[in-house]
Structure formats: C-alpha cells, structure tokens
Amino acid sequence: MEEKKFFVDDLYHNYFKVYEKKGRGKKILIISGIHGDEYTSIYVNEKLKDDLDKINSDFNITILPIANMGAFLYRSRCSPYGGEDLNRIFPGDPNGSLSERLANQIFNIAMENDLVIDLHSCGFLCRPYILLNFKEKGDVKLKMDIVHIVKSKGRKGQLMTELIKNGVESFIIEVPSGFGGYIQIDHANNIYNALKNFLEEKETKTRHVYLDPIVKVRAEEFGLFLPNEEALKVNYTKGNNIIGIFNKSMIITEDVPMAMHFPSYVFKGEILYEYAKII
Ligand SMILES: [Zn+2]
Predict the structure, then answer these.
(1) In Å, how far from its chain's centre is CA 50?
(2) pLDDT digits (tens, 9 = 90+) for 111-131
(3) Number of domains in the chain
C-alpha cells in the first residue's frame, strides 16, 4: 500500500490522503467524507484502508477516506472555509475558491478510474441503499450485498453526476450516520463486508429490490412524531408499512420506508419520513 498526501492550501486543514494498492484489473476509487459529518461511511473506508493489503483483489484500488478535511474536523456537512457543499461544485475549478480547488483536485484523481464508489450518509434513522443511475432494472449488472437500489439521475455538481457525464462509472452508497459524527457500527460492518466482498468478487446471494427515486413527506402541522424504527429493518416491504405515530394518528405507507425523523416535536414543513416505490 502506498500513501500520498495532497495539499490544496496548507494555510488551512485542506489536504487529503489517498491510499493505493496496485492490481491488474479495473481501477476503482472508493471515496468518503465529501460531506464532513458522515462519519459511518468514513469509518467504513478507514477500515478498508487499514485492511487494504489483506484484501484479496485483482482490482487496482484507491481509497480516499476523508475528502473534506476542514468539514470533517468541524463535524459539519459543508466546509467551514466558505460554507460550500463540496458535493454540489464538481468538477471544481483550479482557480476558484478553496472548496472549488479541492473539488478540482479530487475530480482529476477520480477521472483516472473506471469506477468511483462514493460513500455518504442518509441520516440517523434510515436504511442503507445504493443510488444508481439506471433506466431499466434489467440493465443493472451491479452485484453487491446491499438489498435496496434506488434509481437516481443525480444532481448537477455531484461527483457521481459529473463523472458519469465524463464517461466514468459511478454510484453512491448511503449509510446511516448521525449527529455530531455518530457512527452506527452495525451498519458500518455490513457495508464494510459488502464492499470487501465486491472487491474480492465473491458470489452474492442478495436479491435486490429496485426502487424509484425517494419521495420526502413533510409534516403538515406541528406535532409529536414517534417513529416505528422496525419498518427500516425489513428488507422487502410492500403493503401496510407503519411509519409511526404523528399527533396520535398512525402513518402508513404502501411503499418502502427509507428514512424517518427521530422521535421529536416536529415543525410544520420538516421532513417526517421518506419512502420509495418498488419498480
Ligand atoms: Zn453526503
């Protein structure tokens, strides 16, 4: 394993490290920490980096665990230097702001790969899933031990979107995290194993559930929300899925519950839960 350090601007904590393990196969980059507070995905990638020499893979692997060091140290989604969301400004600009220069350096490294896997966090109460740009589910060749694959065109400025535009394959894995850098260890271990098996090209028995883009449902009034967290643990769900209790009424969805607000008094307009329809 070889370690390289890249400085964007050494006046601030704006550097990142990449770890490389040479192989003869496809060149794969696994990146995390584009959003600085998504610690579960950073933890997964750090663990992969630590075990990189033990992973039995033909792929040419690069690991970039903390893409946005300033945001990581600040435990925030966005950069403390200018407040930009790094995942909205790719491919960046070599003559731009600190974050745009960071985006540009990362983008140039990412473009050298055949596949880029970008690890993120879906929030505190959510199920892990893959965000993949596909038209028909029959076209999907991806095999990974993560059940739910959500259709996504991505957004302008996201690393995934801009890479695909430029002919590099890319998808996102969303892993539950939490406030202040909370790491959800069980989810982390599952995603670590899924990625390790993927890199080692192990057979997978996972039967994927393909979903349309996620829909967010907002509270129509102020009130007490008590979620039914169990609904996030069921793999294949269709029919009456209980989301939780809001102002003493039960909320039910026909579709797959993807994320929920934690137990709280929720204000009008806040996101109560997210669901996706099975394709
Ligand atoms: Zn993110």
Answers:
(1) 20
(2) 999 999 999 999 999 999 999
(3) 2
